[in-house]
């Protein structure tokens, strides 16, 4: 078991990464002083519930906690105000009080949704992340919680940090292959923004990661969490540095919104976005090898790097303008400088984006 720390100055919280952690949930709750006198709300989805809910409930019960469970439909569509209201209803009907904890047991969808409930219920109650996807090594750390609006991703949300992250990596063995690939996109992102050596390691261990080799996966997720924790610890509310975690997201979020939530998985959309960001850098003078290396790593994980023909250029641009990264009339892009290094750029012109959308569509015609 490894423990990392997110250090926010006034407070800090741990990320526990290891096997068998869900069946020790109750002990961790007690150790972190979470109240056993108030009911705990476990939010999960209908894929995760049959796999992992029982052990969490059992462990909490043994430690003296009573639980209320809300199971939401699996998938991105559950990051909505409607489902948010359903979870709130479960919290009120379940008698949660200000000392109650909300647990997110699942992937990034459940984490973002339950986190926003925790931030809002009675203006904020304790929150615990129990991630069960590879992608959630990213989403469970750092306190960004949100639901989507029809027009834009993560539009309604808050910064709300958990009490702890309990990452039981044993759960990952049941992930469908497409989710494994999509989750690894954020692992690769962490390498591309911060650590050239880790990016090379990911390339060299692609097969082990795709095969869910516990040792390789444990290393990659610890490294990914470490990079994320480090960045968030330096800039919790995205006043500067934290924006680098958005590599690939300017275009990626637009793809998710215009295609209809869930059509492209988050990891798939940001993979295309990372290819686009590298190509913008190349069009601005970087060596073409930057784009080629980036896309070859992503393709190695079976991730998409071309722009699907059916995605309308004007709609992508329109959706980008609704994103949080469009501010003061400027589009903020994270552009790679070299593998492992990025810069935050706010002078990317819409014409440059149109150009890469077309170029990435043309790439598709050659495959
Ligand atoms: N808050 C953040 O900082 C942050 C960071 C990255 C991504 N996100 C958000 O995270 C979301 C994507 O997260 P995700 O990819 O985990 O999606 P997800 O939560 O939809 O999970 C993916 C799928 O895997 C299933 N699943 C989950 N755990 C499983 C397991 N152990 N075994 C079998 N199936 C399992 C789920 O039911 C779902 O169908 C997006 O909404 C994205 O915007 C947020
Ligand atoms: O934690 C962050 O900061 C990130 O940007 C991580 C991203 O992977 C994640 O998808 C995040 O939800 C995007 O944030 P947003 O502010 O662009 O909605
Ligand atoms: Zn992301």
UniProtKB/TrEMBL annotation:
EC number: 4.2.3.4
Catalytic reactions on record: 7-phospho-2-dehydro-3-deoxy-D-arabino-heptonate = 3-dehydroquinate + phosphate
Domain 3-dehydroquinate synthase C-terminal: 183-325
Cofactor annotation: Co(2+); Zn(2+); NAD(+)
Entry's Gene Ontology molecular function annotations: 3-dehydroquinate synthase activity
Residue sites binding NAD(+) per the record: 108-112, 132-133, 144, 153, 171-174
Binding site for Zn(2+): 186, 249, 266
Cofactor binding remark: Binds 1 divalent metal cation per subunit. Can use either Co(2+) or Zn(2+).
SUPFAM superfamilies the record matches: Dehydroquinate synthase-like (SSF56796)
Function: Catalyzes the conversion of 3-deoxy-D-arabino-heptulosonate 7-phosphate (DAHP) to dehydroquinate (DHQ).
Assigned protein family: Belongs to the sugar phosphate cyclases superfamily. Dehydroquinate synthase family.
Protein's recorded name: 3-dehydroquinate synthase
Organism of this sequence: Paenibacillus haidiansis
